[in-house]
């Protein structure tokens, strides 16, 4: 691989010199053979992944945990006191823990890498004289790029043409204000941050558009240089995992205190130091849910995988869980609720409205269509003898409309070479171009264009005074049919730069073009599903109120959507906004800044907000929303960069399924917690109770370690694979402030913990009373403990509903996990080697029957508890005033 000499300093060269140096043509770009040749020479335009740590380092880093230190100390002390088998078991637990952690970490890393690859950036490149979208990876030095607002700059470039072009370079220089870029050469000594005629890989275009030459790709870019300097980021920590880690830390501290007390009590009672030490350690190790953080990331990761199957890529793990709590979805219209496949269906010019399939050849219609083709940033290319346009669908739709009227788009553009441009911006809602010969064209929202016009073009080609009322009336008629309307105008562009002219006025109105953008067929169903899930859906669009209302009705947002416009929004105070926003279903003519205000208003009212956006200016609102959702196809790199979730085919229905998955994930997390906590607490309490009562231990420390390690993995984790419960999307969203551990959950945990302790002691005593040896009695107690865990596991498949009635759908992992656990318990009971290590002994059939009975009993107790609570809740729900939840919609 070879790199263009970075010291060449393209900023100090003129545009011509730069192009010569790079062996390229700024207007036509490289040829196909040049691209092939350079691709071989320079390699792909990608940064090599930073060197990862070695396997050994990552394995060892797994055991850098206070808990493991406690275990290791325990193991050493046990060995010193001569308990070699026990010490070996402890060592085994440490190794197993490290391996599981290592495997989990590698899997999570691989999954995130794969997801990152799914949201690749693309770039518009001119090659052989034609513009095309290619993956940013395929760029080579000398390529000619078209950059527009919202794009990520895909390589280091020298700018050769700029229109109000501004770049956010904060990722590279830390400078937070966008930098305006120009084309003229600079003194060679200019510092990197001041080179305003170049732009660098990894920065974002915030405004305008530009043409630029690629000067460096991949590792040769400034970004590549920075990456080599900076060490890589640490492990993936998320607010949720942090919250849970905090919880388990508190729990650990509490448990260690109890363990120390137990130790002290044992010593006072005269038990041997060595025995008490291992007992205290076993208590601690048993009671600490070591598997919790791993389980949480597994549940979340499974959620991420399930969502990716449903066409949404989650960019960070906790987003999955937040999604489940969504109470309001704010969605834009074009491309998300609609297909973003625009077709011009009618043209109104020269005082009449005509069907686009049947356009008359009069000067007014022709001029309106011409404006649509030349004041247009879509790229043209010949496909099978016909012109086809690539770019923003609003713009590409204008090309075939002109063609159908017999105009040649390429010829029109050749006849009116563009000399200046004010690009479209959502705040301004119009774009304008200046052309050779002193004529300017503009297109945009009807009210914006009309505000700048005082004359209009008549059918015969003469101009007369503007009839703005008639134009507004037409706009309303089109809008009522759900059509999107663009207005066109012409003006004199002389010496002055276009940017100064766009707000000057004195324009001539040319007419309107109305386009159809059909609703996506799956959207109505998805919106209905959101409604029945208690989630409010709001449309926030830059489009006209009438069009927005009609589309809102068509997709079932409401029978008669309440509409608020951006202007109306500005009149409301921050105090009035939340109530008004709650009433409104359609927000029209809204600017990105107003979107941000809406997100804040909803959040202020206690909502969890999911918000979609596609433009560069949407990034702040996407960042602010609890879940920012960006479009994979139509959206800009800037929006994707700010979002938590990317919809691979821009479809609203994917949000609905993502919410459903999110709810499922939250459920499964609670199920796992509900199962694992009593297990741990029960284990700890068995030892605590034995020591306090001065009784012999029904289960000894190594045995606790055994139970802990096998059941956490083979039983607990299977709950991560639970299918979603039916009715997930017919219940209201979980209140945002509801904690993970509800009182009901605590009660259940207490009940099962108690059950486990009582059962272990009862079994132990019963077997001893029946003449069994201590080893046998302990073996029965352990098997019974595990059996109760299995019975309870079944019950945890649904926390609120009786399992039998709740759903017939299976969880194959559950069956596999239980199978493995039973197999291991059989070995544990009958394998002589295991008997030696774990101090167990074979037991008889009668004991197994009693064990089975205990499992069934545990299951029955929890199921009865559920039924009781359902009854109780029904009873309280029957009391007046508590019957219905307030409807959020
Ligand atoms: N390329 C363009 N050139 C000129 N005017 C445009 C262009 N695209 C859109 N407009 C005008 O600006 C208005 C707002 O467009 P914007 O892109 O902000 O929102 P939208 O695409 O209609 O809706 P949404 O926000 O739902 O995606 C449009 O209604 C149209 O009148």
Could you explain the architecture of this structure?
Belongs to the cation transport ATPase (P-type) (TC 3.A.3) family. Type IIA subfamily. By secondary structure, the chain is an alpha+beta fold. It has 4 domains: 1-230, Calcium-transporting ATPase, cytoplasmic transduction domain A (Distorted Sandwich), CATH 2.70.150; 241-307 and 658-878, Calcium-transporting ATPase, transmembrane domain, CATH 1.20.1110.10; 312-338 and 520-650, HAD superfamily/HAD-like (Rossmann fold, 3-Layer(aba) Sandwich); 347-515, Calcium-transporting ATPase, cytoplasmic domain N. It is 49% helix and 16% strand. The strands form 4 sheets. Strands 10, 11, 14, 15, 16, 17, 18, 19 and 20 form a 9-stranded mixed beta sheet that branches. The chain starts with 14 loop residues before the first helix and ends in an 11-residue tail after the last helix. Mean pLDDT is 84; it is low at 1-7, 230-238 and 879-889. Adenosine-5'-triphosphate is lined by residues 332-335, 392, 394-395, 424, 426, 429-431, 443-445, 484, 486, 541-544.
